[in-house]
Amino acid sequence: MTDTINNSLPKLTAKDFATDQEVRWCPGCGDYSILAQVQRVMPELGIPKEDIVIISGIGCSSRFPYYMNTYGMHSIHGRATAIASGLKASRPELSVWIVTGDGDGLSIGGNHTIHLLRRNLDVNIMLFNNQIYGLTKGQYSPTSETNKVTKSTPSGSIDYPFNPLALAIGANATFIARTMDRDPKHMQEMLKRSHAHKGASFLEIYQNCNIFNDGAFEPFTEKKTKADETLFLEQGKPLIYGAERNKGIVIDGLRPKIVDLTEGVYTESDLWIHDEHDFYKAQTLIRMFDDVNIEGHFPRPFGVFYQDKNKPCYEDIMALQLEDAIAKKGKGDLDKLLRGYEVWDIVE
Amino acid sequence: MSTPTLLKDVVIKFAGDSGDGMQLTGSQFTNNTALLGIDLATFPDFPAEIRAPIGTLPGVSGFQLHFSSDRVYTPGDLCDVLVVMNAAALKVNLKWLKPGGKIIANQDGFDSKNLRLANYPDGVNPLEDGSLHNYELITIDVTKLTREALKEFTTLGMKEKDRAKNMFVLGFIYWMYDRDLDSTINFLNEKFGKRDDILQSNIKVLQAGYNYADTVELFTSRYQVEKAKMEPGTYRSIMGNQALSMGLVAASERSGLPLFVGTYPITPASDILHDLSKLKNFGVRTFQAEDEIAGITTAIGAAYGGSLGVTTTSGPGMALKGEAMGLAMMLEIPLVIVNIQRGGPSTGLPTKTEQSDLLQAYYGRNGECPIPVISSRTPSDCFDAAFEACRIAVQHMTPVILLSDGYIANGAEPWKFPQSEDLPKIDVKFKTELGHHEDKFMPYMRDEKLVRPWVVPGTAGLEHRIGGLEKQNITGNISYDPENHQLMVKLRQEKVDKIAQYIPEQKLDAGPEKGKVLVLGWGSTYGTIKSSVSELLAQGHSVSHAHLRYLRPFPKNLGAILKNFDTILVPEINNGQLVKILRDVYLVDAKPYNKIMGTPFMKSEMTEEIKKYL
Prior knowledge:
heterodimer, A: alpha/beta, Rossmann fold, eight-stranded mixed sheet, three-stranded antiparallel sheet, 11 helices, 12 strands, 29% helix, 18% strand, B: alpha/beta, Pyruvate-ferredoxin Oxidoreductase, domain 3, seven-stranded mixed sheet, six-stranded mixed sheet, 20 helices, 35% helix, 21% strand, oxidoreductase (chain B)
């Protein structure tokens, strides 16, 4: 996909992407913001509505397709990524979006997620991470923090959570980004970047479940803490954060280190410059995933961590192999196939 | 040299260690036989292990071939000739040799080590102790003769030389049945053309085997089987999975829908993936998925996009695909699910045959989930069955399950292949715009077949959403309304039932329309039932044979046929599955006849069973 705008298309608005179906998420759910941003961004992408397909699995987030006036499929639990793979492999010209959640995409459908990323189909994954199972009414998820007390874990959960972006880079994803429901502008930008990327885009969206896991991302989203707890990544810019823009990250040997820019020891020119095309830097950035309660913890980065623009897409190579086979062997001749190599005649 | 003795019918079995190349030897002899216009059927029988420990009983691999100047429908019960490359092969297969039959034994495979591995007591060698006196025993030191023939091939190591042993045996058998070597020499050229020393050594050993037989006068005569009286036409040899692959491609060509196969390798279905992955110039997309579930769901994605979506698997994979089959059925999109059945449950007997997934195909999903089921009966019939499965899927907007099994998947027979122009065209129409009286697209509006329109993404003005939640009739919007749910369940059932109006009526394969016994089979039991029934008919018994292609829905006249017989006998390679469904649907006291040993019925046992009701 490219992000050039086709001027011959009628100008669409967010309203054109809304359906007549009543939106049934709980009032106050972070999903509303995501829906609004997607509806706002879609008209700007310059793709005819009929060429957009949104595929979801099961879970609260997976109701998404019903609210988008495009083609859409609300499928089965965990399989949206696989269904989208089959669609994209056979119809490369379509713009395919996947809506999934931390349960759908990382638990029951974890296998398909990593294999889609590995194959690098040109689709956009929006992973709504609320660190809880909402639709089944409040069990812990594979991204819930350890020792989480939920309906299914009255004594606290024992498992350690996934770091979704680490999983994505482990599968050699070619586009890895994070955003949040409470920052519409940033989300719109990330959605556009996801779309513009030729290859599999993995966008994790922190999404608040105000019923079963309210405030899970509060340190990153609330005004009074956001500046000190988050680090917004910008290509070619130094890693600076803090309410006073007073803190930064330097590379100390192989490790990142937080430094104070007000003490006179470090200046901006000493800082880590973000390069989203650097695989090794991306791996380190992705690992900044500390518990906010730990003394001296790193801020949580948002933005595009990594992009590899050079890796060919599965569906393109598949199409090339077909073309190549026709060029070499000629278009398939059914009678030749049926006849095979050796035949004999029976005469009366 | 005297003229060869004419034989009508021969069953030969090649048996050896998994590494002895018996499958290749068998298939070469098969091709050679087919090209002479002799009718045949084969039964490859191999272990689940790729290479079980050399020389052991579990490592024995066999290939049985039945060829005849009469029509042939089974690979034969007992063999006339047993070729054994080692002691284990003899031990495993001797019980399948006719009294007085020939044993051709590789002497080197009966040394003390091989005898011990085959569990013969110390000091006992069946080739020497007279225990085989009821058979005609021919012992050849194949290893020594092969090495001898290759002594000038100095670039080859001993291991490489020994690998050509099977060519010696093949050459020997070619002489015995008065064949020429050309078909195999052509094959070797294709296979080893790039490695001249391997090619030349194989040809040399093949000729050495032939010449050896000619020189040593081990036999009093050679044998010949004449051409079979088959319908005039052009024939080729075909295996079931090969035919099935071609059936899918033919359906793709005749419907104009590109073929997409999402699948995960599993025995005995993988050859379909192998075959289709070579046919990219037919626009075939094969997607080797990460698991069985992704196999079917990628196919669903492709079908949603307007491809002919197919997934291929065997029993365990079927179990994993259940939920996704339900989705395809709810979405009402076309999809073909191919199950090459094998012995179950669980991992079961992966390389052995069984018909034990019929109930799974019928009922193995959550909720009320009717899916049409059809089956193939012989290797070449897999072509027609696959073509028909695709036709029903796209014309009735439904997933269709096609049941084949390991026996016909790997078995071979001559096939009077069709011409592409003789294949029916499969009409498919995507809906591309609103009709005159429509102001909004209704994804679940049905036609007279109760089929909904197929609209593919990219169609402007018909954007819509579908999914696995229950849908409101006509609009396709989510609906939890109780009345609507009941209506939709009934509609989906009725849609599948209605297919009975668009398939041929059931015909009897043999026998009178009314009588004592109807043998009613499905799938790969066809050949055995046909052979038994024709023998019994020739003896004047009142017996008929009907064989079902359509298992769900049944042909609309099946109930009437069942009423015409005193006994309905239902032979199956399972513990009684079709018989249950027949009893349920038709309230008929059908009698089961079951074998669950991983092998097809023998004709003799089938005949005996039918006789019990005559």
